[in-house]
Every structure is written in structure tokens, then in C-alpha cells.
Amino acid sequence: MPQSIAAKRILFVYNTASPFVFIDRDLLQQKWEVCELYQQTRRINPIDIIQAAHQCNLIFCWFASWHSLVPVLLAKLLRKPSIVVIGGYDTANLPEADYGSQRGGLRRLIARTVIHNSSHLITFSYSSQKEAIDNAGVSLKNIDVIYIGLQDISMGSLTNRNQLVITVGNVWRENFLRKGLLPFVQAASFLPDIKFMLIGKWYDNSIETLRQSAPPNVEFTGFVSDERLIQLYQRASVYVQASLHEGFGMSVAESMLAGCIPVVTRKGSLPEVVGDTGIYTDSNNPREIAEAIRQGLAMDNAKRKKTRERIVTNFSLERRKNQLFSLVSQFL
Q1: Is the domain 164-314 a CATH 3.40.50.2000 member?
Q2: What is the structure's pLDDT at 1?
Q3: Are 90 and 65 in contact (CB under 8 A)?
Q4: At residue 247, what are phi and psi to the nearest 5 degrees?
Q5: 3-class SS shares of the chain: helix, strand, coil, % to 5
Q6: Which H or E element spans position 234?
Q7: Residues near 309 by beta carbon (within 8 Å), at least 6 away in sequence
Q8: Alpha helices in 100-225 (DSSP H)
Q9: Span 21-77, pLDDT tens digits
Q10: CATH of 3-149+316-331 given 3.30.70.20, 1.25.40.10, 3.40.50.2000, 3.20.20.140
Q11: Is the confidence at residue 187, as pLDDT, over 50?
Q12: What is the mean pLDDT of the chain?
């Protein structure tokens, strides 16, 4: 690494160990020195944060919450640039699903303090950008849309597709409606001969509520490895995302790379990701979802190839890297 580039150091702050977060970390490491600050709990060591902030040239945070509050305020105090990726819980206001910092209270105050004290903001969809402007008072000139980039996934064999319908989402009550887990499970009763699979870690006893609502053709896998998840994408015929809110829709995009037909609501960024390659429901009504799934199961391999091509074309790692590098370079 050239000395002039290596001299620039980025403090990378995050509180969730998610693939899309690590994608940005790994991309930034290709050009700059990156120091990680993973704050999994609210117990922070201010001395460590102060030292890390002093030693960096730019602070890069994923999401506006308690973990990014001190780093962003320190950056402003030290007259160093800060960039924050927003567009999830931090900008949402969804009382019907009990979701979003912008509903009010201390979480709203913290999120807005981070958002309005950062040098610049990134969001991963135009719907998230609009949400940030409408709900958090963000100025359009201070926020850029840079779509998430995905690692490629092979389609696998198109001749061995099972009559399998899947959705991915960690199981806790907040996700029942926000991620559409409950209507997905309920939709299975209208297609009793089709296997449904809900993939995701169980975080509370709400799994029992889902089990009680599920007919016999629903399987709850719990947590699966990345390798196993890809295998399931490659086996499935249809992927369902019956969400009330989506900042991007990473699992939808991954499944499309593997050739699944997406069945989605028109909420959030889902239309941006799916385009004209999937099937839309006007609500998360289980009967309506089941009818959309029925249409998806009838799609041919040409349609599967089209879903994959949309992700390859619009959501590549190279595209995110180039746009991310361009923005960060302006502030360094």
C-alpha cells in the first residue's frame, strides 16, 4: 500500500455484525487503513473512543444510534469528517409494527443528533433517502444514495428446483409484521401441498406464536450457516418478503442472484430491488400472498435468469466500491 494512502486512517464504527456492514469495512480496507470500533452494548469506554478518534482522519459509522453518538460528536469537536450510513431503524417511523427511532422519545433524539452532526450521510435506497428527509429532517444536499453491493451467488441447477417457498428473517415479535413473518406463515395454509420454510435465528418465545399459526407444511429452520443459506436459495422456487418496511432487502437480492422468483410488497426499497422481475402484493394479506406465490411457482427459467441479471447489473460490489471511494476521498 502506498505511503500516501496508508497514512489515511478511517475509524469504522458499528453495532451489528451484519454482512452488509462487513462488505463496507472490507472495501474501505482496500484503499485505507481501517480501525474497527464494534460497540455491541451501550457500555462504552470513552477513553478508547477518544484515542481512536484522535488517531483517525475520518469516522465512518453504520446507523445513527447510541453507538455512533459519541464518535460523531467527537469528530465534530476535533474538526474531522464523519460519514454515517442510515436508512433502517434510525429513520423509520412505523407505529403499526412498533418499529423506528423516529416515533419519538430518547431514541429519536439520539438518532437525530447523530444525523444532524455528521458531515455527510449515505443511504442504500432512494426510498430510505426520502424517509430520512421526511422523518428526520435531513437535507437532500447532505445525503447520497449508494446501493448495497452483493457478493455473487451461483444460480445452481435450474432443473432441480423444488416446490419450495422461503423467507429469511430473525424471529422476534418486532419482525412479525415488519418483516412479514406472520403473514408468510399464515399464507402456507392456502397452499397445503407446497413446502414453506422460515429461515432465521430465534431470539424470543415468539417462535411459539408462529408455530401455533403455522400449518404442517411450514418448517422453522432456526439459524443456518451462510453456506446452508445459499444452498436453500439455490433449491427454492420462490422467495417471499411480505414486509411493512425495508431499507434495502438484502435477502431478497441474494435470493434473486440464486434464481428465486421474488414475491414482495411495494413497501420501502423493495420495488427498487425487484423492479419488473417479481410479483407484487398490494398488502400483506395471507390469501393475497398465497396467490402471488402461486404465480411465482409457475414462472419459467427465463424469468429466473432475469431476476439474477437485475441484481448483477444494478447491485454489484464494484459499483458500490467506486461510489464509496469517490465520496470518502472527497472528505479525506
Answers
A1: yes
A2: 44
A3: yes
A4: -75, -35
A5: 45, 20, 35
A6: helix 226-235
A7: none
A8: 105-117, 126-136, 175-178, 181-187, 206-213
A9: 999 999 999 999 999 999 887 777 778 888 889 999 999 999 999 999 999 999 999
A10: 3.40.50.2000
A11: yes
A12: 93
Amino acid at 307: T
User: In the prediction, which pLDDT does 188 show?
Assistant: 98
How far, in whole angstroms, is CA 143 from its chain's centroid? Answer: 18
Q: Strand order in 164-168's β-sheet?
A: 218-222, 195-199, 164-168, 238-241, 261-265, 279-281
Lookup result for grid cell 469506554? 45
Q: What is the rounded radius of gyration, in angstroms, for the C-alpha atoms of the chain? A: 20
Intervals of CATH 3.40.50.2000 along the chain: 3-149+316-331, 164-314
pLDDT band for position 6 (cuts 50, 70, 90): low
Q: Record the cell numbers describing residue 21, joined without a space.
A: 456492514
Is a pLDDT exceeding 50 seen at residue 236?
yes
